[in-house]
Amino acid sequence: MRDVSAPWLEKVWRRTSLVQRLTCVALVPTAISAILLVTLLTRHQMDTLHEMGRSTADAIAQQAATVSGEALRTGERREIGRIAQSIVQLPQVSRVRISDRDGEIIADRVNGSIGSDDDGLTVAREVLDPASHRVVGSVTVDVSVEDAVAAQRASVHNALVWLALSLLIAVTIGWSTARWLSAPLRNLAIAVRQLGLGDRTVVVPVTDDTEIGDLQRGFNGAASKLLHAQIGMEREIATATEELARKNAALEAASVAKARFLAAASHDLRQPLYALTLFSSGLAVDEYDPVRLNRIAHIQECVESLDHLFGELLDLSRLETGAMPAIIRDVPLDEVFEEVSVNFRMVAEQHDLRLVVRTTGLWVRTDRTMLARILNNLVSNALRYTRCGGVLVGARRRLDGGVRVDVWDTGLGIGPDHLQHIFDEFYRVESGPEAGRPEGTRRGLGLGLSTVQRLAGLLGTRASVRSMPGKGTVFSITLPEIQPGTVEATTVAAPEPGIPRDIVGMRVLVIDDEPSILAGISYLLGSWGCEVMTAEDAQQAMEAVHQWMQPPDIVISDLRLREGTGLDVIALLDRYYRRRPGDPPPFARVLITGETRGEFLRNIDQQTTQVLFKPVSPERLHEVMVSAWTVHHAAV
After folding, report:
1. E strand or H helix at 357, and its extent?
2. How far is CA 89 from CA 61, 94, 237, 264, in A?
3. Beta strand 554-558 with 507-511: parallel, antiparallel or unpaired?
4. CA 98/CA 138 separation, integer angstroms
5. What pLDDT was estimated at residue 495?
6. For 407-432, what is each residue's pLDDT tens digit?
7. Of 54, 394, 431, 444, which residue is 20 to 30 A from 77 by alpha carbon distance?
8. What is the reported pTM?
């Protein structure tokens, strides 16, 4: 940046071109020398002219005094007048005055051809008597230097004309020389500009063998090397781009393969697991043998472990396929904290731990279900890896207008080498058997914290972690704060008198294309006292409902069937029972699926149809059936 306080001469110098600078450098010393020389010579000549005029005046005055001495002694006025007249006619003499001893002017002659000259010289001399050498009078002579001054002025004028002509010639020569000297540099500047604009073939001609020639040859060599370097770099970039494209395609293929694998695990692999869940639950019905009950308990424990593992895969699959969109609204944190406290208070007490949930009046704008899921995962992990002490859930207002929600624990902590990978998929901190409480056959895949981070991303934030090994860990998320509002309560109408709170005696139509699932759920529902009909497609479903005089109470259907979907079968049943647009549904409906892709789920009416993801535990199925029946009857 330029210095604004620089002298004005420096500012002017910065604005001049190289040609102007070279011309100035060549001309200024010459002009100064010439002007000084002319000034000095003129001054010297003027002094010389004045000195010569004074000498001439002295000589004339001395001659007049000598000639007029005898005439003044004798008092011959006519002779004195003649002498004065002869002296005034001398060149450059403008006036002669001859006075006697008493100062009386006897003769005063003026040369009319010489004008008055202010710069004239006046010289006076005493007149001596030739015999007695006594003063008998005086002579005053005025000498004019006008002609000499005029001649000097003409000489100065000519000198100035020649000086101007010489300076003009010097300027012309200097300007031409400067342009000739600066032309190679100007060409170099143009070449550099072209090189900067991308012209890689620019070359400057070598004009001479001086330093400028060396500079031109150096520029050409540097431009050539730069061209080769750019060509090589472009080849490397092209190669790297191709390699990156291949790796990106491989990553995309791997991501698609993983998504397909997760989708398969979420659908096809869940089918037999769902059937196994149903059959293992039915084994305990009417069984009283302790040995068999113990074996059944072990089977159910293994099934629950598989269910937990597939649940983690299901969550990951739903997040990756976008099947879990965030529904943002105003949420009171105390409501979510109370849900977390209810879910884990008994778990903490069973392991002699404290679960402290600090109440707060803060509200945030977020998805309530996702926030609850995040806190449930964090509190579950905290309780699992805490041997003594407890877990604290709290919130604190930040200065930037956000609310930080923290989950603290007094567990073993996380080592620094694990912190940067703690939110990665399938990453588990293995620290030996003392790292957490034994969970039996139920062992996670390391997807809990990855799910937390993905859910936080859907909420527009990120989960962070701080830990001190041996003392504990704190997980935090930051949410936008809002002013307290009104809780949007969704209440379900209480069942009227006479409406059963259980599912005993309910007519249930089950639709699934897997015979093993139909057999398992039929056995389970039958053990609960339901009247069950099964179907594998739409035709069998229509045949099944013909056996009932009234519509079924609940239809439980798989989403994907061999021919069409469960939604198509339910729509066919609606038309069979003459449901018109706007009418309440003729029966409660529950969809059970292992599908996670959004295109299969977006057409489901969430207000009339409840969706469960395979495998479904018997307790969850029983709970949803009661809820679906209650909501359906309240709508009717």
Report:
1. strand 354-357
2. 13, 8, 105, 140
3. parallel
4. 6
5. 41
6. 999 888 887 877 776 776 655 665 44
7. 54
8. 0.45
